[in-house]
Specification:
This protein is of the alpha+beta class. It contains 12 helices and 23 strands. The strands form 6 sheets. Strands 1, 5, 6, 7, 8, 10, 11, 12, 13 and 14 form a 10-stranded mixed sheet that branches. Strands 18-17-20-16-19 form a 5-stranded antiparallel sheet, with helices on both faces. A two-stranded antiparallel ribbon has the order 2-4. The longest helix has 19 residues. The chain is globular, with a radius of gyration of 22 Å.
Length: 390
């Protein structure tokens, strides 16, 4: 089997794609108002919101919500809501915060993906997977007849050869996204096999083709469900079972619109001076200490992942001994603002796009919360779907 396959994609037969497409389920997990506003906007309309489980509600009677989602999926399938498109889709996403990011929707063979540290599979995770997060997501997926993807995979194409080779076919959708998500356009790719060939050409001696940028726990869940299904299947039925293949969007890591930013650390503690005294930074790189809204330079390991690992270990040990809380902050200005009320922040350096794939190849998974690919409203919206049952 090949890592990349041309999927049969389900698209809604609707005139209101703006009601259909909704943001990734793992966003705005502390902002119930976001999801309430979205529910109000799409109420009574065909919407992917009826087919997903926003993670803000994971502890809110999940069994009843899962049953409702599965029923809606079957209702949409049986009711002719979907039309089938065979092929790859070119996705052009213009967000309110950046220019246009271009990706390709395709399917990957889950046999060629692993989230284990040190895996040598063609598709690899980039950050440590929290295994405790997988079982509740398996409950959501295990009886679902279709999947909707929010996973974004990265490929390493500095010369842009893949997108240069794309031949555009008919436009499948072109609309404004709800909840300040910007605009998205999807176009059928006419020369899928050539594009796939050019993607394979990017695979070097390491054998690595894609790195998971967003949605690793979603993909890990798909992998777990496939392993569970596979164990009960005879060998011949394992080859083409739809649950074996996961729908994803792949994006060139060098896409100018793809934001690649560090995630900073904030420690809520009254022992700020003691924390700083024990920090003992060293190395040829640079990070910044943030206290009371003020920023000062500190040394940092020039191997950024190793530096983050050591910092996280120190923070964990400090909190275990002295108490306190850790939070992960996306912007320096936000970090400065939050420290005005106390605590201490460490503003971390960004990993270079040029170094990203080599770091994964050499060192395996990066520490948790090492990088971010844009703000919440820039994440992938659910549009396409695919059957995962026979």
């Amino acid at each position: 089997m090949q890592t990349i396959t041309v999927p049969q994609i389900l698209l809604p037969d609707t005139d209101d794609f703006s009601a259909w497409a909704v943001n990734a389920c793992d966003q705005f997990t502390s902002d119930e108002n976001y999801w309430k506003q979205l529910e109000s906007r799409v109420s009574g309309k065909l919407s992917a919101l009826n087919l997903i489980f926003p993670e803000i509600y994971l502890k809110d009677n999940p069994s009843a919500r899962i049953a409702k989602i599965n029923a809606a999926m079957r209702e949409y399938l049986d009711g002719g809501v979907f039309r089938t498109v065979q092929g790859l889709i070119l996705v052009e996403r213009t967000t309110v915060n950046s220019s246009t990011r271009t990706g390709i929707v395709l399917a990957i063979d889950l046999e060629d993906y692993s989230y284990e540290k040190g895996a040598k599979t063609p598709v690899r995770s980039t950050e440590a997977t929290i295994t405790e997060r997988i079982p509740p997501r398996v409950e959501i997926r295990k009886n679902a007849p279709i999947e909707l993807p929010h996973a974004m995979l990265l490929y390493d194409d500095k010369c842009g050869t893949v997108l240069k080779s794309v031949e555009r076919g008919r436009v499948l959708y072109d609309f404004d996204l709800n909840m300040d998500g910007g605009h998205v356009k999807g176009t059928l790719i006419r020369n899928s096999e050539e594009v796939i060939k050019n993607l394979y050409a990017l695979k070097g001696e390491s054998g690595m083709l894609f790195a998971v940028g967003d949605g690793n726990h979603s993909l890990a869940t798909a992998k777990t469900c496939w392993e569970n299904i596979k164990s009960a299947l005879p060998q011949e039925q394992r080859q083409n079972h739809p649950a074996r293949f996961a729908l994803c969007e792949v994006v060139n890591i060098f896409d100018p619109a793809l934001k690649f930013e560090p995630i900073h650390r904030y420690v809520k503690t009254e022992r700020v001076e003691e924390f700083e005294k024990g920090l003992k930074p060293e190395g040829g790189g640079t990070a910044y200490i943030v206290k009371k809204g003020n920023v000062s330079k500190m040394c940092f390991n020039s191997n950024i992942p190793d530096g983050i690992r050591m910092l996280d270990d120190y923070i964990s040990g400090f909190i275990k001994e002295h108490g306190g809380e850790t939070d992960y902050i996306h912007g320096v200005e936000e970090l400065k603002e939050i420290t005005k009320s106390g605590g201490i922040g460490i503003a971390l350096p960004a990993i270079s796009k040029d170094d990203f794939f080599s770091l994964i190849i050499k060192g395996g998974n990066l520490p948790r919360k090492t990088f971010s690919m844009g703000e919440g409203n820039e994440k992938r919206y659910y549009i396409e779907a695919k059957k995962i049952i026979l």
